[in-house]
Amino acid sequence: MGVAVLWKNFHKSDPITPAETEAVHQFLRQYLQPLYDALKQYPTPILVGASGTFDVLENILVKDKTHPYHSHLAVSEFPAFYQQILQTTLSERLHMEGMPSDRADMIVVALILINHILQSADFQKITISAFAMKEGILYEMIEEFR
Q1: CA dist 77 to 82, 115, 137, 142, Å?
Q2: Cα–Cα distance between 89 and 128 in angstroms, integer?
Q3: pLDDT tops 90 at residue 63
Q4: In this structure, what DSSP letter does residue 89 have?
Q5: Where on the phi/psi map is residue 33: left (φ > 0), alpha (ψ -120 to 50), or beta?
Q6: What pLDDT, on the 0 to 100 scale, is given for residue 1?
Q7: Could you identify which of 6, 27, 47, 132 might form a hypothetical disulfide with 51, taking C-beta atoms 3.0 to 4.6 angstroms apart as the criterion?
Q8: Fold of 3-144
Q9: Sorting pLDDT into bands at 50, 70 and 90, what band is 135?
Q10: What is the pLDDT of residues 25-39, one digit of tens each?
């Protein structure tokens, strides 16, 4: 799921409207059904995220990063930030401490996606990896040639 698709198709107002937010949720309910099925079959208390929006969450919400390769965020810390972002304009987000300018436009729909996923299962913690998917793919490629 690319947030650029969500942003282009649903985020028309500044700030986003409740109707637009609900439209994203309706779309995600259908699109993410395979994820819901997997989470029912394989429950997990931890949502692991990497790059992009998860880096923003780490920059703004994680106060004590104790490990160089990952950090943790209690799910209970997410809702207040999520609600704050839903109510902000692009200009306000661009002036937020810790908000990269290249993330300020799509962060709203990205957080709607994360919120939607958090509500779909009993996650207790978010783990934010310092590595992205590309590092994992490179690692697998290197291992394949060993």
Answers
A1: 9, 12, 31, 37
A2: 26
A3: no
A4: -
A5: alpha
A6: 65
A7: 132
A8: Nucleotidyltransferase; domain 5 (3.30.420)
A9: confident
A10: 999 999 999 999 999
Give me the count of residues in the chain: 146
The reply to whether the predicted model has a pTM over 0.70 is: yes
Dihedral (CA of 22, 1, 46, 129) sign: negative
Whether residue 28 contacts residue 116, with contact meaning beta carbons closer than 8 Å, is answered with yes
Average pLDDT estimate for 102-121 = 95
Band (pLDDT 50/70/90 cuts) for residue 137 is confident
Are the CB atoms for 58 and 142 separated by under 8 Å?
no
C-alpha 38: how far from its chain's center? Answer: 19
Phi, psi (rounded to 5 degrees) for 144: -65, -30
